[in-house]
Amino acid sequence: MEPGKRKADDSIGRDEKRPKSKKQWQVPRRNDHGGVQAKAIQPGDSGIWATCNKGREGKCVGELQNLFTEYAELLYGSTLDAGDSKGDGTEMPDAADIESEIQAEVAGIRKPSAVQLFTSIRLHVQCVVFFKTVSPIEPVSFVKRICEDAANNSALKRTRFTKRLSPMTLMGRPSADELGKIAAEVLAPHFHQQPIRSRKFAIRPSIRNHNTLNRDSVIKQIASIVGPDHTVDLKNYELLIIVEIYQNICGISVVDDSFERLKRYNLAEIFDPTPKEVMNKAQAVSEKVEGAIDESADVADLEAQPMGLS
C-alpha cells in the first residue's frame, strides 16, 4: 500500500507545482519568401492573377514578389517614403543616455510596421497564383507598366516561370447582383464620366470551375451596364472589359487597346514570342470562339437598346 500511496502523493505534488498554461500567441503564417500568407480573396479586394507552368507555383510567387516590390518602389517610391516618414516630430534623445536608449528602443518596437503592398493568396490550384494589392497600387496601370518595359527591352527579363498577368480592379462574389455592383463601380470612370465620350469596347469573360454564371449572361449584363452610348467592336476596341470568374470569386478590370500589342499581358510571350504561324492558328481559333460568343449574346441588339440586370 505504501508504494502506491507514495506514487499518488507524488502525482498530487506534481499537479500542484505545474504552472498554469498560457495561450501562446501565434506569429502570422508567412510564405517561403517572407510575405504574410492571407487566407482567401475577399469581396472588395483588388489584385493580380498570374499563370505559370504546373508545379512552378512557388517559384512564380517568389519571382513576382521580387518584381512587384521593385516596381512599387520605382512607381510609388515617394508616396511610400512619405508614409514611412510620418512621425510625432520629436527629436531622438541622446544615445549616450541609457534611459533614453531604452525609450528609443521601446518607441521603435511600438512603431507600426510598413503596410504590405502585395500579399500572395494560397489557392491550392495548379498553374494559378494571386496577389492581393492595396493602395497606392493600381493593378491595371501597374501591370501595363511592367509589360511595357518588358516589350521595350527584352534584356529586362526578370521572370522565368510567370506567364500571363491579369490585373483585377475590384473583386466580389460571382452572383448576378454582385457582378452588377462591381461592374457599375469599375466601368463608371471609363464609360459614364460627363460629358460622355462614345467608346468602342469589347467584353472578354473567362469562367473556370464555376457553373452559376455563363458567358452569355455575363456579356449581356456587362453590356447593359456600359449603356447605349458606346459601340461593341471585338477587333478594334478602344477599351476591353476583362471579367475573370473563378470558383466563388469574380473580378473586373478595364484595359486599353495596347493589351493586344503587349501580348495580352503575357510576359512569357513578350520575352519569347510564339512563332508567327502557330500564333496565326491560335488567333483564328480565338476569333472563331469570339464570333460564336458575339452571335449567342446578340450583340447587335445590345447596341440598339440597353438591357436590365438579370
Give the strand order, joined by hyphens, for the main sheet.
Answer: 5-9-8-6-7
The count of strands amounts to 9
Q: Ends: how far apart?
A: 82 Å
Tell the overall outline. globular
Structural class: alpha+beta
Order of H and E elements: HEHHEEHEEHEHEEEHHHH
Low-confidence residue ranges: 21-37, 85-93, 289-310
CATH class identity: Alpha Beta
How much beta, percentage-wise? 15-25%
Looking at the structure, the CATH topology is VC0802-like
Output mean pLDDT: 79
Count of DSSP H/I helices: 10
Largest sheet: 5 strands, mixed
Number of domains: 1
CATH architecture: 2-Layer Sandwich
Set out the fold topology.
Elements: H1 2-17, E1 46-52, H2 57-85, H3 98-110, E2 118-121, E3 128-133, H4 139-152, E4 162-168, E5 170-172, H5 176-191, E6 200-208, H6 215-226, E7 231-232, E8 239-246, E9 249-256, H7 258-261, H8 267-271, H9 276-297, H10 299-304
Parallel strand pairs: 6-7, 6-8
Antiparallel strand pairs: 1-3, 1-4, 2-3, 5-9, 8-9
Helix pairs in contact: 5-6
Task: Describe what this molecule looks like in 3D.
The protein is an alpha+beta fold. The chain has one domain: 2-Layer Sandwich (VC0802-like). 44% of the residues lie in helices and 17% in strands. The protein contains 10 helices and 9 strands. The protein has helices spanning 2-17, 57-85, 98-110, 139-152, 176-191, 215-226, 258-261, 267-271, 276-297, 299-304, and strands at residues 46-52, 118-121, 128-133, 162-168, 170-172, 200-208, 231-232, 239-246, 249-256. A 5-stranded mixed β-sheet has the order 5-9-8-6-7. A 4-stranded antiparallel β-sheet has the order 2-3-1-4. α5 crosses α6. The longest helix is centred in the first third of the chain and has 29 residues, at 57-85. The model is unreliable at 21-37, 85-93 and 289-310 (pLDDT under 50).
